[in-house]
Amino acid sequence: MNDNATTVMRLLAFTDSAFPVGTFAFSGGLETAADMGAVHDEATLEEYVRDMAHQAAFTDGIAALQAYRAYLQGDYDTMLQADRYVILCKMNAEARLMTRRMGRKMVELSQKIFSDDTVARLSDDIRDDATPGTYPVAQAAVFAACGISERNLFCSHQYGVTNMILGAALRSLRVSHYQTQRIMFDAADEIDSLYDEVRELDLDDMCAFSPHADIIASLHEKGTKRMFMN
Predict the structure, then answer these.
(1) Distance (Å, rounded) from C-alpha 163 to C-alpha 169?
(2) Phi-psi region of 164 (alpha: psi -120 to 50; beta: other; left: phi over 0)
(3) If you average pLDDT over residues 40-46, what whole number do you get?
């Protein structure tokens, strides 16, 4: 799978925040983190982004890579297993809602753009509630169907998490576009090492242990200061 101009163009399209799967509606609980004072400036925002990206890498990131490989091997059952594992790693209802809503939209949109038997089968199972239809697994199926490499899948996944939070930060904190873009630029330095670590792990290695983030998420579910869905 060479990253020729066609696959790069598709990677950019699927990763773009304007791709209508609903990422703009979520924040990773940033408003509550800001209200608690845990995130209040550029430095604490960067720390929060890195923590959330790492948590996502060792949960959704592992599931995405395993589902991607399962797609290429024609192992549909493992794709569904990865889908279930993603849900099991979500400690709060809003995170489960987010990943299912975005996953469903990902496969629905993809079917309008191109034809693929496995993506169509996944769409049918999501519609019939036979599988949760999480975003990492839907993204893996679509990327594999389009010939986008698994490394770029992981990069797109990490970019999505980081960009979601930084986009919300511009509306929730006193930070500028310059500061958020600097954080995004520096976060890229960790992608290769994260990928090299995560690529060797399997579904049983998924670990969502991030108490601070989970406490913020649980408070956010019942919080009153909200601009986003989670």
Answers:
(1) 10
(2) alpha
(3) 95
> Could you identify the residue written with the tokens 């960009």?
163
Instruction: For 132-142, write each residue's pLDDT tens digit.
Output: 999 999 999 99
Q: Given this model, what pLDDT does residue 122 score?
A: 97
In three-state form (DSSP H/G/I as H, E/B as E, the rest C), the secondary structure along 38-104 is CCCCHHHHHHHHHHHHHHHHHHHHHHHHHHHHHHHCCCHHHHHHHHHHHHHCCCCHHHHHHHHHHHH
Which tokens in the block code for residue 76? 């549909």
Rounded Cα gap, residues 199 and 127, in angstroms: 30
Domain assignments of the chain as residue spans, ordered by start: 5-15+24-221
Give the Cα separation of 179 and 21 in Å (integer): 26
The amino acid present at 30, given as its one-letter code, is: L
Q: Tens digit of pLDDT for each residue in 168-206?
A: 899 889 999 999 999 999 999 999 999 999 999 999 999
Measured distance CA(173)–CA(35) in Å, rounded? 10
Instruction: State which CATH number among 3.30.450.20, 1.10.4190.10, 3.30.230.10, 3.30.2350.10 fits the domain covering 5-15+24-221.
Output: 1.10.4190.10
CA distance 82 to 2: 26
CB atoms within 10 A of CB 64: 29
Mutual angle of helices 62-72 and 150-172, in 10-degree steps: 150
Number of residues that make up the chain: 230
C-alpha to C-alpha distance for 193 and 135, rounded to whole angstroms: 23
